[in-house]
Each structure stands twice: as C-alpha cells, then as structure tokens.
Specification:
Elements: H1 10-17, H2 21-29, E1 36-37, E2 43-44, H3 47-61, H4 66-73, H5 80-113, H6 120-127, E3 135-138, E4 147-150, E5 156-160, H7 167-177, E6 181-184, H8 193-200, H9 204-217, H10 224-234, E7 240-243, H11 252-263, E8 271-275, E9 291-295, E10 304-305, H12 315-321, H13 325-330
Parallel strand pairs: 5-8, 5-9, 6-7, 7-8
Antiparallel strand pairs: 1-2, 3-4, 9-10
Length: 342
C-alpha cells in the first residue's frame, strides 16, 4: 500500500530545500513551479513541486538566471555550458589550493622529522589556507580611535547602520587602508572612472553587455546607475571595490537581480564592500557562508561583524535599520529636524 500523498506549506518546503519562502514565491512568479492552493488560499507543495523546486535551486547554485532555467526546462541544455565552465574553474582553483596546502603540511612534517618545530606564523599560514585579506586600523571620527579589524575578508561584505552612524566614513577608511581598493561614491556617474575603465579595456564592454543581458532575465531595469555599477564590477582592476549606497538609483527588482548576479560571480572576481540600507540588497535570510555583514551602531560604538541568524549578535539591530526600496523611496531626501523652541 503506497503512503498517502503529503503536501507541505511554504515554510516547510523552504526548510527542506534550504531556501527562503521568498525564493519559492519568486520561482512561482517566473512560472518555474506551480504549487497547489488550499481552500484558504495557502500554497501547498507536493512531491513533484519539491522535486522541480530542487532542480531550480541546483541550477541557481550553478549560476543560471531564472530565464536561463526556464529555457533549460523548455528543452535547451546549451544554457548549462557556461555555468558548468564556471563550476569547472572553481573546482580547479580548489584543487590547486588543496595541493598547495598539502605541500605546506608535508614541508612542516619534514621539518619536524629534522627536529625543527614550526613557528606559530607557519601554523597559522596552513590553517588560513585560503589567503584571504585582513585589515585593521584605528577608527576615525566620530569614533574615539578604537581599533577595528576584519579578518578573512570574504568576497562580499555588506556595511549597514542607521542614518548618522558613520558607515560612510568607515567605508572610505576601508578603501584607504586596503591598498588595492577604490571607493565608488555617489558621484560615480560623473567622476569619469567608468568612461576611463571602458577606454582602457576593449573587452570590458562585452563583459558588461553579457551581465546586463543576464540581469534583464532576472527582471532588472536598465539605467545609467546600473550600468556604472556593472562596469566597475566587471573591470579587471582595482582588486577591491567599496561602494557607497549600492541601491542608489535602482528599482527594487533591479536590486534583487543585481545581488543575485554578484553571488554568481566567478571565483577570481574581486572582493566587494557594499554599503546599503535596503532589504532587497541585504536580505538577512540569504546571507551566505562567504559573506559578511558589518554594522555601525547609532551610538558610535565600534562597528562589528554581526552573526546573520535570528538571535545572533547584532541581527535584530541590522533588521531594524533595513527597509524595502518602496519604503526607502518615501523617505528619500528627508532630513530630521528639531522644531525651534518657542
């Protein structure tokens, strides 16, 4: 006797798939899955829905856009080639890194056999085999010179905090302290760097066009603001970019498409620091293992790296200072003022 058919709610299905309920709704909006509805209107996911959603999750992990996934489901396997090539590159890099670490370990064991114990720095070099950057410095005004440090900087770091918390000064100082970094301010449409990068790299325009096409399929709206960001992200240098309020000039759908694009970047792409107060850019449910969130408190105590899980240090504080794009738009340009005393 076959077991009874079971349906799962959106939260149960999301938990089984390791994604958010918001992601499942996006897949449904794009026509990739079609869950049933209960009599009360709640989404219900059966075994076939979960299987199809799992395929979407796997293809997203390979870096495919929702439009590309739709074409794969429609019978066009060629969309997979670019994603598999990127996966192949990532695996080759991991293999190279493992081989280097094994050589380090073998060298330390040879030293031990000869009676020489490894130093602390040599052991740390083996344990920190990914060679990611670290930075440390005394915080500028409005802080009191407290020491700030980030170790093992990942490929994607978000900087956030309420208005007046000093996050722009922190971002600028980070760009100064990281010798291979540049600060991309709100004047990025007029500061001339975008045109210079395009002029210096004949192939950059083609890379930008490919990324914009991918973003189109994710529902992004093209604009000068989006173009300037993509040029900066696709340029070969500098090695690190710190971006002031990355959501500036971008619609909500464009913000969601942009962050999805940044998460699918090739392994060799640069590290990015993104200042934001948008929940479409910094969705705490989607922060990955190779990402970090730095929070600047309103009281100007030292910024710190939060734990991006409910109940973790700083999680609730970050959640309260983020807002969806439509809410941010309503308060754009508003300056809080104390009325004159009578």
């Amino acid at each position: 006797m076959s077991p009874p058919h079971r349906n799962f709610t959106a939260s149960q299905a999301a938990a089984r798939l390791g994604v958010s309920a918001k992601a499942l709704r996006l897949y449904e909006q794009q026509g990739l899955i079609a869950p049933d509805r209960s009599a009360a209107g709640w989404r219900l996911y059966g075994a076939a829905d979960l299987a199809r959603a799992a395929e979407v999750v796997s293809l997203r992990a390979l870096g495919l856009s929702l439009g590309q996934i739709a074409r794969v489901f429609g019978g066009d396997p060629q969309e997979l080639d670019g994603a598999l090539a990127m996966l192949e590159e990532r695996l080759r890099m991991q293999t190279t890194q493992v081989a280097m670490t094994l050589r380090r370990v073998a060298s330390l064991r040879d030293d031990l056999a000869r009676g020489r114990a490894p130093s602390a720095n040599e052991l740390i070099a083996v344990l920190d085999a990914d060679d990611r950057l670290s930075v440390g410095f005394a915080l500028p005004w409005p802080w009191g010179g407290e020491w700030f440090a980030l170790h093992g900087i990942p490929r994607l770091t978000f900087i956030t905090g309420p208005l007046g918390s000093g996050k722009t000064r922190l971002a600028e100082r980070l760009a100064d302290e990281l010798a291979v970094a540049c600060f991309l301010g709100l004047d990025r449409l007029s500061d001339g760097r975008v045109e210079r990068w395009l002029a210096e790299d004949p192939e950059l325009a083609m890379r930008v066009a490919r990324t914009l096409d991918w973003l189109d399929e994710e529902g992004a709206e093209r604009s000068d603001a989006l173009h300037a960001l993509i040029v900066a992200f696709e340029a070969d240098h500098p090695a690190i970019i710190v971006v002031d309020m990355v959501e500036e000039g971008l619609s909500g759908a464009t913000q969601q498409a942009l962050i999805a694009s940044l998460r699918r970047r090739a392994p060799r792409k640069r590290a990015l620091f993104l200042m934001t107060r948008s929940s479409s850019i910094l969705d705490l449910e989607l922060v990955g293992a190779d990402e970090a969130v730095v929070y600047c408190p309103a009281n100007h105590s030292a910024p710190f790296r939060i734990v991006p899980h409910p109940g973790g240090q700083g999680y609730e504080a970050v959640a309260t200072c983020l807002a969806p794009p439509e809410v941010r738009a309503r308060s754009a340009g508003v300056v809080a003022m104390r009325p004159n005393a009578q």
